[in-house]
Records
---
Amino acid sequence: MSETRRSRLVAEVDFNKDGRQHGFIRLFHSVHSSAYGFIPIPIVVLKNGDGPTALFVSGNHGDEYEGQVALCNLAKSLDPAQIKGRVILLPMANFPAGMAGRRTSPIDEGNLNRSFPGNPDGTVTQQIAYFIEHELLPLADLVCDLHSGGSSLMYVPTALIKRSPDQTRFAKQLAALRAFGAPHAYITGGGNGTGADHTLSGGAERQGPLAVGTELGGSGTVTPAALRIAERGLRNLLVHLGILPEVMRIPVDGPGRVVEVGGADYFIYAPDSGVFEPVVELGEDVKAGQLAGRVHFPETPWAPPVEFRFARDGLVLCKRIPGRTMRGDCLFHLGSDTTA
């Protein structure tokens, strides 16, 4: 497969045309009920003259809703006359997953954020990844990929970046992270087994634009607080890039704390299958060896629960939401303070 092949997907919008446009990216999908049909992935483009390009993405995971609402609001409120440059909004990147309210696609079980750089002749999810990496990312100066904990996790609302070995690039990403202004921020080294090279931010590293991400909450909900953080952060990124004028910056104090997320010892996984009892809350500082929680066995209530402890000091950034858990589920992850 050549890296220079064009995607099979077709956009109904003209990325070089001034003004406001909206339409669909057509992913042609022949099935029993629709022989010549296409999957309509919505896209909005706002452009006014020459200038930087911001690509804002949500719905990479279909059960993460905070970013989807924020981009819906931005699509309607942002005036092309206010901007200098271009803003591309992709509010439901994995459209089949978004419509199903699932992390992964109901068509091919594809996890879009583990599918980059994609394949132009692959599954539906691989084709979406290929289009984003090879058609959209090369247009952008910065991409912001809006995530949250989805159905199974809840996060302290945070913005995040991946630590780049290129110090010049990392300094620019750090400046964008601070401009977003979330109350907490974290830097990841990509060493937690998530396959960072196969994420959208991995695609950004290959294609060139700076990448900022978020974990804005989760548990399959949208909260007013998380939505405010998302909308403020997106607007301030546009100011940071020079797409919006400085007078439109929304003052923030954040991030109040920047932490690092490293390897396996930052993550706590269920040691057995049962009912998860957390004994710490999001946002707490914990110590190595401190009790994190227990797994209970209601089917044999006389059996003692299995206790598990944190392997290191840190800030509790994330915890599992459903009480019922299986061995291997992520229950917590931590961040440790860093000077970046």
Note: The chain has two domains: 10-261, 268-337.
---
Amino acid sequence: MPKAICMISDHGDPLAPLGTSQAGGQNNYVKQLALALDARGHSVDVFTHWNSAETPQYETFGNRCRVIRVAAGNRGFVEKSDMIHLLPSFLNEMLQLQDFSRYDVLHTHYWLSGLLGEKLKKTYSTPWIHTSHSLAVAKEQATGLREPRRLKAEQLILSSADAVIATSLTEKALIQSSVRRSSPIAVIPIGVDSVFSPGSHSMRRPLTFTFAGRLEETKGIFTLLRAFKLLTYSDLLDTPVRLRIIGGDETQVDAVNRQALSPRLQEAVRGIEDRVDFLGCLPQDKLAVHFQDSLAVIVPSYYESFGMVAVEAQACGSPVIASKVGGLGDIVLDKKTGLQTAPGNVKELASSMGFLAKRPDVARQLGRTAAQFAKQNFNWSRIAKKVDKLYEGVAYAAQDTFVSN
């Protein structure tokens, strides 16, 4: 039976260009899941912060999906770390914009949205599912940064929702070990868009490594640049290699020459400028082409609940060199679909890159296995079917509880 689904993705606008600030895996997850549920006959409204004066308040996508942007008294970009102060206004404006009694299911994304979901659940008793996308406890383990308010909020959300979606077994185990009396947890991975496919996979010459993501410390960008510099100036290889970096601001095309990078990034590429290409953020079709002709895609994050870039790269037939953290430990199979390294270990990352540069035949075999693995495990149609089944189960349980009472 078709459902009216409400999703809340506070800072993650599903239609924002990927790679820009606060536009990454969560945005794409929400968009692709909404479209896949749309294909199953459901309608999906996604509430998100109205972070740009250039975008309309209502915007449709797919056949039955739309984004509803909420100003919350502050139309324009707001750092997600500051967005908690907007939540009361965000909730009030949402209630003014839509009648929430019309929704059959509520699905929140990230802890800030989860706080809104907890309030709405109390008022409307709508079946509520939550996906964290990242966890404070994982971030603390990886970076040492403790966020008491977020930790407390996630305890509330992950024990109050009717069901929680973990995107990997590692995430499920972490929730169970850190949350007292957690809600039922369903492990459902993230899917990959059909644009990410193997193609011809003719490796670029010179051999090229690719990084795609936000140019932030926690994404491991500085670890990668240090490793690439070490590789370049060592005797680990006898063939020229390049590094391609995708992400950052839309204006950061050929950013080294335009001096558009932060001072820290400019310092990090000093001495290897002629071997590093900054391409800025790119649409998915162009991103897929770059993955297809890469020797390997590097995902050196300090923590990842899932690791969408790793899945997309594997779907394109590229092996992935990834930090063994969070979901990356589950979705990059060491020595089968790629190589795993310790997070922040510059020498180990340089060594892994050097190995594949010397053995492109091994990289090709890893890439072929990676493409098969991605096709079997990260199909959005199958994933939407699992999520839909979860919605049905939660809705049935809620209805049964209502009748029993």
Note: The chain is about 40% helix and 15% strand.
